Description:
With 72 residues, this protein is mostly beta strands. Helix content is 0%, strand content 76%. It has strands at 4-6, 9-14, 18-29, 32-42, 47-58, 61-71. Strands 1, 2, 3, 4, 5 and 6 form a 6-stranded antiparallel sheet that branches.
Amino acid sequence: ERIDLQADSLVGVGNGQFRYVEGHVRFKQGDVVGWCDRAVDYYIENRVQMTGNVKIVQGTVTLTGPSANYDG
């Protein structure tokens, strides 16, 4: 399943391989939801590299930290 990622601002795009976003970044994939301040979305690889106030929730499990890599 593809990661559905949304953010306030698209900051840049690199070689058609990724996009850099920031501002209230949020994503959803199935029953997993996540939030952060900034992210690099490697959409071809279906993964997200997140930084700043990271929070990922799946059911009753919540992960928080300053950064994380989510591989869809």
